[in-house]
Amino acid sequence: MDAGKAASVIRERNSETVMSQFQPGELVLLTSQKGKTWLVRAGAGSFSSHLGTVDLRDVVGREEGEFLETTQGAKVFLFRPSLGDYIHKLKRRTQVIYPKDIGAFLVYGDIRPGDVVLESGVGSGALTLALLRAVGPTGRVVSLEIRPEFAELAKKNIEVFFGKSPNNHTLVVGDITASPLALQADRVVLDLPEPWKAVEAVSACLRTGGLLVSLSPQVGQVQLVCQELKRHGYANVTTFELLKRNWKIDPRRARPEDRMIGHTGFITVAKKIACTSEEVPTIRDPEAPVPS
Ligand SMILES: C[S@@+](CC[C@H](N)C(=O)[O-])C[C@H]1O[C@@H](n2cnc3c(N)ncnc32)[C@H](O)[C@@H]1O
């Protein structure tokens, strides 16, 4: 094989060598021409849908974006699942954070390669996947989950996506509201039913200047968490929600789809300041009207 050909089939990702051609056992997102998707593994058995059957051995050796023809003559395209694709397909026993909100965690939480992130709860592991990818091989995600069965499910979901148990992950079965962990984190991310109960313990682990991000579906939960954050020395405590509305676009129409997911959760972001809880200053909302 000449050097040009070798460069086209092997590339580096996160310091790992990745073959561009599908390998036996790899996850493949079969995608119909109308955009319907199925998650399968390359290499063994067959897959049948209303479009007919494909032999999954035929996936091995193909490149992403190529297609197989079903027994009924339909084309199914071959892709590796994106993180967003996988989150929609993973096995879940809890509510998971939607990709639109995960994006906000990563950007507003400023989660970077090399960061140490403390996460709780883990649930089905959707957010954990994105955190692991964002911190990369030089960072670390420490995840606490109180229910062993959810921790086990998340572990499996993570292993399936990455093809192995990632070296940058520590998954602990435990209660985040109990005594603080011996850990200094750059970031804390919370997706808990009672996040305000975790603020004291996680604040002891978060470095000064570090960011905390929390998601809650109910505004009463948000009020309690904001109150606790202000008591424990945080500035810039900001809460928002994100609405994602898909559109139908074709030559005859361009308009929003009839249905959307109207509500997922409120996201709160806060920055840890340098003071003890006794010294916490009264923090004025920068957008509140100035008293005359
Ligand atoms: C909504 S789920 C998290 C979903 C997850 N973020 C995802 O994207 O898949 C909330 C999780 O918090 C866990 N949990 C609740 N209280 C906890 C506590 N005190 N300590 C640790 N985990 C807790 C629950 O068992 C549940 O798995």
Structural class: alpha/beta
Under CATH, the topology of the largest domain can be stated as Rossmann fold
Instruction: Please tell me how large the radius of gyration is.
Output: 22 Å
Assembly state (oligomeric): single chain
Q: Classify the beta-strand content into a percent band.
A: 25-35%
- The rough form would be described as globular
Helicity, as a percent range: 10-25%
CATH architecture of the largest domain: 3-Layer(aba) Sandwich
Number of strands: 17
Q: In words, what does this structure look like?
A:
The radius of gyration is 22 Å and the shape is globular. It is α/β, with parallel strands linked by helices. The N terminus is likely disordered. The longest helix has 15 residues. The N and C termini lie far apart (77 Å). The protein folds into two domains: 79 residues, Roll (Vcp-like ATPase, Chain A, domain 2); 195 residues, Vaccinia Virus protein VP39 (Rossmann fold), CATH 3.40.50.150. The protein contains seven helices and 17 strands. The structure holds S-adenosylmethionine (SAM). The site of S-adenosylmethionine has 22 residues, from helix 4 and strand 10.
Brief rundown of the structure:
By secondary structure, this protein is α/β, with parallel strands linked by helices.
Short descriptors:
single chain; 292 residues; alpha/beta; Vcp-like ATPase, Chain A, domain 2; 2 domains; seven-stranded mixed sheet; four-stranded antiparallel sheet; 7 helices; 31% strand; binds S-adenosylmethionine
